[in-house]
Please model this.
Amino acid sequence: MSTMTEAALGGSFTFPNSALRVHRVGYGAMQLAGPGVWGPPKDRDAAVAVLRAAVAAGVNHIDTSDFYGPHITNQIIREALHPYPAGLVIVTKIGARRPPDTSWQPALSPPELTAAVHDNLRNLGLETLDIVNYRRMGSGHGTEEGSIAAEVTVLEGLRREGLIRNIGLSNVTAAQVAEAQTITNVVCVQNNYNLAHREDDALIDDLARQGIAYVPFFPLGGFTPLQSSTLSSVAERLGVTPMQVALAWLLHRSPNVLLIPGTSSVAHLTENLAAGALTLEPDTLAELDGIAAAHATH
Model:
């Protein structure tokens, strides 16, 4: 797979107050673990191949967590890419644990957060983590108000120790972002957002004004067949896949939006990365913007 130009990967973005510059189309590593993000994948060699293909194509932003697997995904990243190429930014997240029953449980105490940073360092083979997101465990994939000062303070302490370079947040509200900013410099926010799920529109615009990255997870989540048919008709007209249209729409949404679509297949990876070069005309964007309004009436 030949290296794509910066423009083909959606242009670039520099995280605020840092030297970390990434292409806007990155890669999310969650699907490299086994079913349910638990245990090893059935084909580890294929997982390694996907990571190497992503980096060979120009991807320099990989999103992961040591609670994927747990430990498995980071170990595969290390196997595939270590020693890491210059300019590769690995973003991880902490705030959860995976007990043997495979559930997702909060892990928010200072010792748990500290241990999670050390787990990521060990399994990735790093001495310092580029960016660590504090992942707030709300109800399902929704946000819940409440102070996050204690957890962010722990991360800021680890940053001052030199274990973390930058701090981000995941699954948080605008009020929680503002609270965290009284404690540390926040470089990115990772929340649930897509064509149909647009509760963060105001937050995205506010972060854009501050030069802070917004990284949507579940870029295709939450569609009913009706919304899916709108997306499908646009995709059919453009001769691309619905996922490519949904990803391209996110890139058009705001210049601070960074994508981390995940896949365990090289063919699917190539498809996802191609979305970075897809241009959507204003009338098409308007048609796609209507999906959220239609979704809200259901």
